[in-house]
């Protein structure tokens, strides 16, 4: 049986038109520090700032609280991440995957309806836009991305 998939591609302008917002999921307790800093930092930057470098290459089974510059910051768990679901190649280890993921800040594209899409499945998750944080502009440049 042969399955043919139609190729579907977007030009950047069309993608932005369909999904004009970028959302960053975080916990409610992180909002004050995000507003204060005016930017988002990778988990690596936060973990290093808290002096907990040993945990950079280890999956977070539960959410972790860190103290950075006197502020308590919560890093969400990485529960959906399972080693058995990843076929590692070129000498990569699961620790390499953890470290790579921790080195980045993630945004999810969407539209003004994103809140209703997330709410039923995970009401405890917080979308930055729901608390009046302005989503980054479509052309991010380096704004909101940590210097790693």
Description:
The protein has 148 residues and is an alpha+beta fold. The chain has one domain (20-131). It has helices at 12-18, 31-37, 43-49, 94-102, 114-118; strands at residues 21-23, 25-26, 64-68, 71-75, 108-110, 126-127. The strands form three sheets. Strands 1-5 form a two-stranded antiparallel sheet. A two-stranded antiparallel ribbon has the order 2-6. A two-stranded antiparallel sheet has the order 3-4. Residues 119-148 have low confidence and may be disordered.
The gist of it:
With 148 residues, the protein is of the alpha+beta class. 24% of the residues lie in helices and 14% in strands.
Helix-strand topology string: HEEHHEEHEHE
Query: Averaging pLDDT over every residue, what do you get?
Result: 76
How is the biggest beta sheet arranged?
A: 2 strands, antiparallel
Structural category? alpha+beta
Strand content: 5-15%
Termini separation (Å)? 46 Å
What would the principal axes of the Cα set say about the shape?
A: flat
Unreliable stretches covering 5 or more consecutive residues: 119-148
Write the layout of secondary structure elements.
Layout: H1 12-18, E1 21-23, E2 25-26, H2 31-37, H3 43-49, E3 64-68, E4 71-75, H4 94-102, E5 108-110, H5 114-118, E6 126-127
Antiparallel strand pairs: 1-5, 2-6, 3-4
Primary descriptors:
alpha+beta, two-stranded antiparallel sheet, 5 helices, 14% strand
């Amino acid at each position: 049986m042969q399955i043919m998939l139609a190729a579907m591609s977007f030009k950047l302008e069309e993608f932005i038109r369909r999904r004009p917002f970028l959302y960053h999921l975080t916990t409610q307790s992180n909002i004050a520090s995000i507003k204060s800093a005016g930017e988002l930092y990778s988990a690596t930057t936060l973990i290093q700032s808290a002096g907990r470098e040993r945990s950079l290459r280890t999956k977070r089974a539960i959410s972790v609280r860190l103290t950075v510059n006197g502020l308590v910051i919560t890093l969400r768990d990485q529960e959906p991440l399972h080693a058995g679901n990843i076929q590692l190649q070129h000498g990569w280890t699961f620790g390499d995957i953890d470290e790579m993921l921790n080195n980045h800040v993630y945004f999810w594209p969407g539209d003004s309806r994103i809140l209703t899409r997330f709410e039923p499945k995970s009401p405890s998750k917080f979308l930055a836009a729901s608390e009046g944080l302005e989503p980054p502009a479509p052309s991010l440049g380096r704004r909101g991305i940590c210097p790693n």
